[in-house]
Amino acid sequence: MVMQRIFPVILCLLLFVTALFANSVTLDSLKTELSKSEKDEVKCFILITIGDFYKYENPDSAVFYYNKCLELAESSGLKKYSATALIKTGYVYHFQTNYDRAIGYYLRSLKIAEDIENLGIIASCYSSIGSLHFDQLDFDKAIEYSLKSLTLSKKLGDKDLESANYNNIGLAYYEKGNLDKALDYFFKSLVINSETGNNEGLIFSYRHIGVIYRAKGNFAEAEKNLLKSLEIAEKTGDILGVFVAYGSMANLNIVRAESAQDKKVKHVFSQQAVEYAAKAYNFFITLNNLYLENAMALSLKQAYTLLGDCNNALKFSDIYIATKDSLYNEERTRVIADIQTKYETEKKLQEIETQRLVIEKQKIESRRQETVKNFLIAGSGLLSLLVLIILLGYRQKQRSNNIIKEKHNLLEQANEEIRAQKEKVESQHQVVVNHKNFIEEQKKRIDDSILYASHIQSAVLISESQLKALLENHFIIFRPKEVVSGDFYWTAKVNDWIIIAVADCTGHGVPGAFMSILGISLLNEIVRRNEITEPAAILEELRKSLVESLVQNSDADMKREGMNACILSINKKTNEYLWAGARNPIWIIRNDDKNKSITEIKADSTSIALHKNMKVFSCNKMSLNKGDRVYMFSDGIVDQFGGKGGLKFSKSQLKNLLSKTASKSLDEQKQILEKALDNWQNPPEGEKYEQVDDITLVCIKF
Predict the structure, then answer these.
(1) 327 vs 294: CA distance, rounded Å
(2) In the chain, what is the greatest distance between 2 CA atoms, to the nearest angstrom?
(3) What is the number of alpha carbons within 13 Å of residue 615 lying toward its C-beta?
(4) How many Å apart are CA 444 and CA 309, to the nearest integer?
(5) What is the rounded CA–CA span in Å between residue 254 and residue 260?
(6) Among 270, 271, 248, 273, which residue's Cα sits nearest to residue 257?
(7) What is the DSSP string of 579-617?
(8) In angstroms, rounded to a whole number, what is the distance separating the alpha carbons of residues 409 and 668?
(9) Is the dihedral of CA 606, 609, 611, 614 positive or negative?
(10) CA-to-CA dists, residue 234 to 80, 243, 575, angstroms
(11) Looking at residue 561, what DSSP letter applies?
């Protein structure tokens, strides 16, 4: 079963690596051209092209390059590239099912495209907005926008977009239950794709035709068309097309199994459905696409139900419900509707304002013509007077010119001397300016790199909403010493176990951040992929993987580079609580203890790094009751200098503070801890103290 889950991911990675190797020369040459190019329009084109390379395998990088293009295009007035960067950013968020952000980018792109009357981008925006409404189950809106895009794509002669619109309209009619109309649109798309040789379009058309025949009960035609779609996807290296075809084959086999009378035949079709759906599901998880993950969770639930496998059917039923809630919650739908309503209202107001400005302009022009007429009449009289004054002035000017000429010669001599001195000063000034610009540019690049590293680290840390779903009662104090942190907290759910980790990597800032991201990546592999849930075993695997990852370092570096960590595993079904620590202890305050004293379980003295004697980590089984509080932390908080004498905050002070506040709510206790730490670093009187290390503290109330 584990190999069945892992194989599609390995296949996906192999195909991605092959594609990346084939494109690496292109990417390198593009980045070289970007650094050489002086024209903003060329730079925008290259940034968009680089973003397209990253669109599926590295969405964050794609968004980064699209945003760089947007900034440059806006500063240079290149509105076409502004609209292009916005719609492509919308594509990325759309694919990640972040619909409210996607609609915002689509509408911003549409507004700019309408201003510059770029019909191609307008048509693409209509098509994308239609697809988004389809994903949100508003099929009438999906058809409305796809028809708008279809009209423009025909006018422009854009066959690929015309074909895509036929597909989108067909899908909407399929969901509305009008199978004949849907099939008609899919065949129109197929004809165009066959004429143009658009393999991606052919994959869509054959797959959708197969889906319609499946719904009509013509399983033979359905299978023929789906396999044709799969064949083209495999031949052209369209990885997403391959796994979506797997999903469609899974659904076909589910319907076959449901209609089969013979139990053996029913079992064969059901088993085939599980195999196809499992491959697709595991791949869609790697894409972080809730829409596709939700669809395959439903297919796996149905297939396992037909096989009589209740445990797996229930498991995927829970996943289907959870992902469906994330996709189609009322608040998300309302936000999208509000964004579009606001856009349409602003567009109407803009049209009214444009009409008002036209009328105002006509009035101003009329007044201007009247003013010109009056000015000409008055000017004629003044001109006569002016001619007389000029004649008198000319004679006076002749006398003055002789005097000025003599003074001019003297001034020229003085100017020559001043000019020579000025050139010398400007030359020196330019040297200083060049040095200043070089230093400022270097600083900006470093600051930008660290800020981008901070975004990456924030992305890999678990979000508050995900933590809330796993740990209902908790609080976290997380204060990096610099922009990025060498501390991290991490959690995951595997079967009935919830695993929480708090780790302190060697160093802080950028070096510490690299170690923390490596630690999170290794924990994901050990716990999520390999399903290891026992804390001591996790620490053992983490140390082994870390040593293997840093194998190219010297022995001295290997001993120095590592991390301290503690891991807590919770099984709410069996009320089991397991804990293991590498130099970081765990503190417990019992709910029934009136004194609120702290029980400390000491950690093993060895860290997660290369040692001469690699001691085995010990696992502690704990007994916890409702209301008990558990604290896991790095040493940053107790080592912080401050107060009147510049002393460390210390474990004893932290224990005393936690004991005094243990009867308060979690929010109150967190606020008190943060205020105490702030006052310690910034006492009312005396010296202020900088933060000396990254600070992390996690509290869980049971």
Answers:
(1) 9
(2) 122
(3) 11
(4) 58
(5) 10
(6) 270
(7) EEEEB--EEEE-TT-TT-PEEEEPPBS--BS--SS-PPP
(8) 84
(9) positive
(10) 35, 10, 48
(11) S
Phi, psi of 429 (to 5 degrees): -60, -40
**Distance of alpha carbon 92 from alpha carbon 46, whole angstroms:** 18
The angle at the Cα of 54, spanning 49 to 58, to the nearest 5 degrees, equals 160
Distance, CA of 91 to CA of 102 (rounded, Å) = 7
Rounded to an integer, what is the distance from CA 321 to the centroid of its chain? 24
Residue 219, exposed/middle/buried by CB under 10 A (0-12, 13-18, 19+)?
middle
Structure tokens at 293: 């993950």
Q: How many CB atoms lie within 10 A of CB 610?
A: 20
Q: If the chain, 702 residues long, is cut into consecutive pieces of 10 residues, what is the mean pLDDT of each piece?
A: 34 40 65 88 93 86 93 93 94 87 92 92 93 89 92 91 91 90 91 89 89 89 90 88 86 86 86 86 78 84 87 85 68 48 48 52 69 69 73 73 73 75 74 71 65 64 83 92 89 94 85 88 94 96 90 59 93 94 96 91 91 88 94 94 90 95 95 95 86 94 92
**Cα–Cα distance between 220 and 214 in angstroms, integer?**
9
Q: Give the torsion through C-alpha atoms of 116, 120, 121, 122, to 10 deg.
A: 80
What is the residue whose two structure tokens read 């009035």?
363
* pLDDT value for 457: 66
Residue 471 has what DSSP assignment?
-
Residues 579/620, Cβ–Cβ less than 8 Å: yes
Tokens linked to 677: 């730490």
Spatial neighbors of 313 by CB under 8 A, at least 6 apart, are 301, 304, 305
Which amino acid belongs to residue 522? L
Q: Are 508 and 523 in contact (CB under 8 A)?
A: no
End-to-end CA distance of the chain: 34
Amino acid found at 112: I
Instruction: Give the torsion sign (CA, 378, 381, 383, 385).
Output: negative
Q: Which amino acid is at 159?
A: K
Q: Are 160 and 196 in contact (CB under 8 A)?
A: yes
DSSP E strands in 383-511: the ranges are 474-479, 487-494, 497-505
DSSP 485-542: -SEEEEEEEETTEEEEEEEEESS-HHHHHHHHHHHHHHHIIIIIIT----HHHHHHHH
Ramachandran region, residue 543 (left: φ > 0; alpha: ψ -120 to 50; beta: rest): alpha
pTM for the full model?
Answer: 0.42
CB 549 within 8 A of CB 518: yes
Residue 648 DSSP code: E
Q: What is the pLDDT of residue 419?
A: 80
Bridge-partner residues for 571, per DSSP?
497, 576
CA distance linking residue 546 with residue 610, whole number of Å: 9
Backbone φ, ψ for residue 461 (5° rounding):
-70, 145
Going 67 to 68 to 73 to 76, the CA torsion angle's sign is: positive
Token representation of residue 47: 């940034």
* Pair type for strands 641-642 and 598-601: unpaired
Spatial CB neighbours of 36, under 8 Å, sequence gap ≥ 6:
none
